[in-house]
Design brief:
This protein has a five-stranded mixed β-sheet with strand order 11-12-13-14-15. The protein contains 15 helices and 24 strands. By secondary structure, the chain is of the alpha/beta class.
């Protein structure tokens, strides 16, 4: 596959460190089928139908074998790409495991993607198979999938969950007898590419991130050790499986542990609370908005969530007030994490809870992080700089774009994030390179000001971006979403920040109140959208 940057030196180096397991995820599936075939492997709740599917390890293994047989019968094998645009349904889990069984590469795609995104990604991947729902949330995915098949030369097969005839997933891939050939093992080793995951494209054209079993499983096993996860856990997963958070720390983690995975396909806080309580979920990994919704859910402290012990959150620094609400109302340990599609979770805080309110964690075993200046020299502790990472979890290339693989000869990857590191090695993300605001030569601490705004009564969420300014270079513009009935204006916001002892230099100079902030499916605020809006304010000032 074009774009792979995995040379023998890295393989030797990682093997010497003992982080890479040289295993495939289906080996864990095979173990649980043998050892506890009748135990629950997966519970999938579908919001639109109100139905639940519960599969044992044996039932999951059988469905994986059927799908693998069906794909193989259509010529799909080692190195072929299978794109799947599915919600958090059991089919997603089974299809990925079936791809591993035959050595194919899974290409997860967000259910919200439409023709523009899909035609680029599926075409760029030269996928041979595309699997989607027939319909989901009122959208005709089936019609779009068939259009893609007509337009993309490499796309040979389309299968639709809930479809009919030749495109029916159930009739074409799931029906028929099992074949013993597809019930054990995999034709690839730990260094075979198993995942093609496109970046969100929020700062430019999406890039196809390539991961092997070793790069994914290596970091997941270290994550399990650090956070003391075990088969006694029950994994609750509302994060999209088509994002690394749901894929690695939901789907893969549950299979590695042999722990039940509870899937929610459409996010509703009330439904999430019900499922956590009903299935005695113990753990989840999701972005800050999910945590805030649960922590602020009405009377959540009166629900029986005693089993729910751990909420790992990533995607953006967590406002300290949200951590406090979660600890008080949910009774969970909140763990902050930083990661990317390219390196999974490279840092986390610890179960002790230390520094969760002021940091994004310390490097995972097998990973290293450093903060450098424009010349690549490490900056003094507590100073901002460019965040770089290296280690076992680092991806192995961008599909067809080796020139974009920003890894130096020593193995350091330039993340594009700005961060600072304290004396103990804990990092704090200060934003993306493009998120930094420099007002008259002064760097505005965006993350800290946003965290302060979260404390203001009436504000649900806040984001700050720069507006071009002829004299100062940039000024700060705050975008907020408010609680129903709340009134927030620039004067009251500034008065609140003054009360929080925030320097006047850092106060936003424009306020825009929105119904909600634009976010991608994993909860990250789309600041490029806000920057475009702020630029228009400057170009068309109020009369």
């Amino acid at each position: 596959m074009q774009g792979i940057q995995l040379d023998p030196r890295r393989i030797e180096r990682e093997r010497a460190r003992g982080i890479w397991p040289d295993r495939i995820l289906v080996e864990y599936l095979d173990r649980w089928v043998r050892e506890k075939g009748n135990a629950t492997a997966l519970i999938g709740f579908r919001e639109e139908t109100g139905t639940t599917v519960r599969l044992t390890w044996s039932e999951l293994g059988e469905r994986v074998a059927r799908i693998a047989r069906g794909l193989s019968a259509r010529g799909v094998g080692v190195g072929d790409v299978v794109s799947l645009q599915l919600p958090n349904w059991w089919e997603f889990v089974a299809i990925h495991l079936a791809c591993l069984r035959i050595g194919a590469i899974t290409n997860p795609l967000m259910p919200i993607f439409r023709h523009r995104e899909l035609s680029f990604m599926v075409g760029h991947a030269e996928s041979r198979v595309f699997i989607a729902p027939s319909r989901f949330r009122g959208f005709d995915h089936g019609a779009l999938a068939l259009t893609l098949r007509e337009q993309l030369p490499a796309l040979e097969h389309v299968f639709l969950v809930g479809g009919e005839g030749e495109t029916s997933f159930e009739e074409q891939l799931l029906a028929g007898p099992t074949n013993p050939v597809f019930t054990q093992g995999s034709p690839i080793d730990g260094n075979g590419v198993v995942q093609l995951l496109y970046t969100s494209g929020t700062t430019g054209e999406p890039k196809g991130v390539l991961h092997t079993s070793n790069t994914l499983l290596g970091t997941i096993l270290q994550f399990i050790k650090r956070l003391e996860c075990s088969e006694r856990d029950v994994v609750f997963m509302p994060s999209p499986l088509a994002h690394q958070a749901g894929f690695a720390y939901g789907l893969m983690l549950g299979v590695v542990l042999g722990a039940p995975i509870v899937l929610l396909d459409i996010w509703h806080p009330r439904r999430a609370v019900e499922l956590i309580e009903q299935h005695r979920a113990t753990y989840t990994f999701a972005s800050t908005p999910f945590l805030a919704d649960l922590a602020q859910f009405e009377d959540v402290d009166k629900r029986d969530l005693r089993a729910f012990r751990l909420f790992v959150t990533s995607g953006a620094p967590i406002p300290p007030v949200v951590v406090q609400q979660a600890q008080e109302n949910l009774g969970v340990v909140v763990v902050a994490s930083w990661g990317m599609s390219e390196c999974c979770s490279a840092t986390t805080t610890l179960l002790s809870g230390r520094k969760v309110r002021e940091s994004d964690g310390i490097a995972m075993p097998g990973s290293e992080v450093k903060v450098v200046d424009s010349a690549g020299r490490e900056v003094p502790r507590s100073q901002q700089g460019s965040l770089r990472v290296r280690g076992a979890a680092l991806f192995v290339g961008y599909l067809k774009r080796p020139q974009l693989y920003a890894v130096d000869e020593d193995g350091w990857f330039d993340t594009g994030d700005v961060a600072r590191m304290d004396e103990e090695g804990y990092i704090r993300i200060c934003g993306r390179d493009k998120d930094i605001i420099i007002r008259g030569g002064e760097n505005i601490p965006v993350v800290e000001i946003e965290a302060a705004l979260y404390k203001m009564p009436g504000i649900l969420e806040a984001a700050i971006v720069g507006m071009p300014d002829a004299r100062l270079g940039e000024r700060a513009c705050a975008f907020v979403a408010t609680q129903p009935g709340a009134h927030i204006d620039l004067e009251s916001m500034r008065a609140f920040l003054a009360g929080q002892e925030v320097s006047k230099t850092f106060w936003p100079e424009r306020l825009e109140v929105l119904e909600q902030l634009p976010r991608n499916p994993t909860g990250k605020v789309l600041k490029f959208v806000l920057r475009e809006a702020a630029r228009k304010f400057v170009e068309s000032p109020p009369a």
